Amino acid sequence: MKIRNIVNYLESIAPPTYQESYDNAGLIVGSSDEEVTGVLLCLDSTEAVIDEAIAKGCNLVIAHHPIVFKGLKRFNGSNYVERVVMKAIKHDVAIYAAHTNLDNVSHGVNAKICQRLKLENTRILAPKRKLKKLYTQVDIQQVETIRKALLAIDSDQIGVVEGSVYSSVGASSANGSVLPKVRLEVNYHEASERNVIQTLKKINGSHETVFDTMPIEAVHPRIGSGMIGNLPDGMAPLAFLKLVKKVMKTGCVKHTAIVGRKVNRVAVCGGAGGFLLNAAIRAGADVFITADYKYHEFFDAEGKIIIADIGHYESEQFTIQLLNEFITKKFSTFAVHLTTVNTNPVRYI
Description:
By secondary structure, this protein is an alpha/beta fold. 28% of the residues lie in helices and 30% in strands. The protein has three domains: 3-99 and 318-338, Udp-n-acetylmuramoylalanyl-d-glutamate--2,6- Diaminopimelate Ligase, Chain: A, domain 1, CATH 3.40.1390; 109-124 and 224-310, Udp-n-acetylmuramoylalanyl-d-glutamate--2,6- Diaminopimelate Ligase, Chain: A, domain 1 (3-Layer(aba) Sandwich), CATH 3.40.1390; 129-215, Alpha-Beta Plaits (2-Layer Sandwich), CATH 3.30.70.120. The protein is built from eleven helices and 15 strands. The chain has a six-stranded mixed sheet. It has a five-stranded mixed sheet with strand order 1-4-3-2-15, with helices on both faces. Helix 6 (143-151) packs antiparallel against helix 7. The longest helix has 12 residues, at 193-204. It is globular, with a radius of gyration of 23 Å. The relative contact order is 0.16.
């Protein structure tokens, strides 16, 4: 089993094209051609984590946060980023990161938070506008086969959405007779374009496949930032915040003033999610759980919602379990370890 096999699988779950512009998800250190001896999962690929990988015989570290966000001009060990990269290269340890691309899928980081809080009827809080539409004409007898094949692309993850729309047209055959054709339209996320086109060409066989694609002004319901869902039963605000502290294993929950109504609807965003506050309010959330709120930003609640800052590490720590579930479900030919190193740089007293 090569590193590329694991990378390809993870990128089918959370394609790199879903990452934010500032991000650096992907294979950061190492060669994808190397055979995997073991995998170590973590939130942050710190020096202690690389040491742990070496000690456990793991040559692949899969992290949530990229160790490198900006270009490195020197490698002299002057900071922890350089030291991590240098040590990883020296000991042939590859480092892969699934960051905001894993945040931005409906089965990713925020889904794990919702699962721990037992939220129901969850959906993406702020869907992204990255849909495209493909137009083509196919033989009438191929319509159902093509439709099923296209809808099966990433069926449990992402890909084709909104089904397909068909309209009959006439087309001339080579001998001048007119044969029925079907105009097929399919909406899909841009990350799935290659799969959509390959599927279409494969079914068409030797026939020439002519198609057009174009961006469309629509959102993908399973791609975007944050998530929102409902509690099975309403809870008093303070009781809910205490539950959050326990379930999310955080040393501190910083929150705004208690709003009198019961908590029924909850919005979440792992990491720094302050940019989603207005979306949470519009969606009718009673509480917004996230991290990295600054003092003056708490005023933005304005009595409309309870903001609960549970800490960056705390909000994303269960991503390690999520990655483990993905990988162990797919692969069984190498050891997978969850780091025992607590990489949280914040301490509480």
